Amino acid sequence: MTDALRQFKSQIFQGLANPTRIAIVELLRTGELSAGTLIAKLGIEQANASQHLAVLRAKQIVVSRKVGNQVYYLIRDQALIEVLDILRRYFYAQLNSTVNMLKEVAREAPKSRAGARR
Amino acid sequence: MTDALRQFKSQIFQGLANPTRIAIVELLRTGELSAGTLIAKLGIEQANASQHLAVLRAKQIVVSRKVGNQVYYLIRDQALIEVLDILRRYFYAQLNSTVNMLKEVAREAPKSRAGARR
DNA sequence: TGAGTATATTCTTATCTTCGAATATACTAA
DNA sequence: TTAGTATATTCGAAGATAAGAATATACTCA
Q1: Cβ contacts of residue B36 below 8 Å, gap of 6+?
Q2: How many inter-chain contacts (A to B, CB under 8 Å) are there?
């Protein structure tokens, strides 16, 4: 089972391993939207969006329902939003530690100036 | 900044979008291990493991430190383990809902047998 | 120094991913 | 039915990724 679980996880990660698809998931964060709305908000080609949506469907990240002419998309499980939130915190933590490291460096070499030669 | 954040997230997801790399991260869950130990536990080629480790380093998922002859790997941030745990819960939830759906189907068609023709 | 061990890199080949362009399908309204 | 709108699929090119084989680098010990 452990192997199936790893397969499953890597499928999810693959599904999210693209900035456009992350943008889609973030847009869907507060509820369902139609493909057309997503396309308008993303500002990308219809075909391209449709392909990314197909990936998200295939990886079980979103579900869709058809209403007349339109297709509405919805995130399949809140867990995925949690995942994105954790990574946001991680991102800012990383940023902070980078900033602190730079401050540290600046303190240790107080004489250096921007543009100084190596 | 929002764009940088999406880039960052998709980098992380890309790093984890492979079952072998997920296995590595899971092995590192409880603490650092040397490359050699990882290779032994994974049962894969040395060169292959080394490449996956290079990806994990490049995507900022692990950090390494060298001790003499060996290189020890460590997960860079606990947040990533949280992410894997969330997905594990998600996985089992999905499994449950699939099982329930199958039970439902079985209840609705009590006369059908395994192997019955379509 | 030289031999042996641990790990990384490079190269090649096969396979995936992404994008845009073109086309197809499904639905609505007249 | 036909025209129009919304969405999906297919195809081809460019680039990225994965695996094994061969080789290189870095370290230890004698």
Answers
A1: B70
A2: 92
CA of A59 and C1' of C6: distance in angstroms? 38
Helices (H) and strands (E) in chain B, counts: 5, 3
| Residue reference for tokens 């379509």 | B118
Contacts of B24 (CB under 8 A, 6+ apart): B38, B42, B49, B52, B53, B56, B62, B73
Residues having Cβ less than 7 A from any atom in strand C: A 14, 17-18, 20, 44-45, 47-48, 51-52, 55, 66, 68-69; B 34-36, 39, 46-47, 49-51, 53-54, 64, 69-71
pTM attached to this predicted model: 0.85
Token pair recorded at residue A3: 């192997």
Cα torsion A61, A94, B11, B49: sign: negative
Does any CB of chain B come closer than 8 Å to the CB of residue A16?
Answer: yes
Q: What is the pLDDT of residues A68-107, one digit of tens each?
A: 999 999 999 989 999 999 988 888 887 887 787 777 777 6
Cα A39 to Cα A56: distance, rounded to the nearest angstrom:
15
Could you give the CA distance from residue A92 to residue A87 in angstroms, rounded to a whole number?
Answer: 9
